[in-house]
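Thread: Palmitoyltransferase, structure

OP (GT): Posting the sequence first so everyone is looking at the same thing. Length is 208 residues per the record. Can we get the structure tokens written out before standup tomorrow? I want them in the notebook alongside the other entries.
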Amino acid sequence: MKIYHLAVIRASDPQTDEQNKKPSLILCSESDLSEFSFFQRGSVAEFMNFFSTTVAERTSVGQRQAVSNSEQGDRIVYAVRGSSGVCATVMTDKEYPDRVALTLAGKILDEFTQTYNADRIAGASDKLAFPLLGEMLAKYQEPRQADNIMKVQMELEETKAVLHKTIEGILERGTKLDSLVDRSTELSNSSKAFYKTAKKTNSCCVVM
């Protein structure tokens, strides 16, 4: 069981008119890239941010969901979206417990919005300092070592269903992940080339 990536994202709505849409912004993020080679890590990090942002933009206020890429189903992004368009995401492998991941995302969202108010979040133009995210990434790698607060939260969440979807299921009809990758301004040309090469060899586990 492993957590690969945590993020807090000020997410735009993909349905909003392009002229009025405010770009999504990753307010803070932490990754564990230890299992990837040094030369892959830059592209891996970009794709973790890209996929997490794609899911966050398609998570409604108050919604909790788990989204996988059907082509590379060994990675799942869990998302919990609060008010002001703020969404916390947790990327794990498929063995990591759903309820722990979603509860962790909710805990991250609560802690972040207690640290920064809505005006500070809305006005941010770059990442905001949030050292607790790195601590959480390390602490919750082993869900059985979670603290008592996590255990209580898990019991409270027990009655809530976990909504599983695929990336294709949350995209607009006719939209493909490949086209989002091609149009993305967040991904470098080398990362786009890496994605295409990895997809052909069915080894794009760095994304999902």
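GT: Both are above now. Quick notes for whoever picks this up: The first strand starts at residue 3 and ends at 10. The helical segments are 41-57, 98-115, 118-123, 132-139, 148-157, 167-170, 177-183, 189-200.
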